[in-house]
Specification:
single chain; mainly alpha
């Protein structure tokens, strides 16, 4: 595919973008902005994003993406509860922390289990139920997203590393599936994820100081 083909594909894709996808993208960007600021509004704004993307994914036959966004929806409710918890002095119970070696092994195991499960499931479903699936790429984007969302509910610094992986994998993945505006959205999210990692790392240092 030449540069001219990519540009033409991008223009056609943008013309075909509907209002539901625009709302999903904008709410997603706002949600990530709030997460970078460690603001609990990350979750209500994120719910708008995930619910709309569940609809879009099912409509487009993207089973892997639909499962990820359904998981996001459930974990957003759980994360909202976790971030809202207060101690007796009405201070947040949850604080940004960094994973130790044992926790990193747990994160990698969590990722590996989901990657294998999603890869084999999509490989099986591809022929009859999910023709748009790209099993290895969908599994990478989905499993890293599952891991990042799980760690975000715990305010783990490493959640941003997994989000960076998700965003890098999702940019070309959505582009080839004709969700061009969503592909651009993941480029923006990639920048926000890098900024979020740096911001949380700074806040973690301030907590220790």
């Amino acid at each position: 595919m030449t540069a001219a083909d990519i540009l033409q594909h991008f223009i056609e894709g943008m013309k075909g973008t509907g209002p539901v996808e625009y709302i999903a993208v904008i709410s997603g960007i706002v949600s990530v902005w709030f997460s970078r600021k460690e603001n609990i509004l990350v979750y209500p704004t994120g719910l708008v994003n995930t619910i709309f993307y569940v609809y879009l994914s099912f409509r487009g036959g993207l089973i892997g993406e639909a499962s990820v966004n359904f998981y996001y929806t459930v974990m957003s409710l759980y994360g909202w509860y976790m971030w809202a918890r207060k101690d007796q002095q009405h201070r947040p119970v949850l604080h940004i922390t960094k994973a130790n070696h044992r926790e990193w092994m747990q994160h990698l195991f969590f990722f590996g289990i989901f990657y294998a499960a999603i890869f084999f499931l999509l490989t099986y479903l591809k022929k009859d139920f999910a023709p748009g699936a790209i099993p290895w790429a969908d599994a990478l984007a989905s499993a890293s997203a599952y891991t990042g969302m799980w760690l975000m509910t715990k305010k783990k610094l490493e959640s941003w590393i997994w989000w960076i992986i998700t965003n890098i994998a999702s940019v070309p993945l959505y582009f080839v599936k004709h969700y061009v505006f969503t592909s651009v959205y993941y480029i923006i999210l990639l920048g926000l994820a890098i900024a979020g990692y740096l911001e949380w790392r700074r806040r973690l240092k301030e907590q220790h100081a």
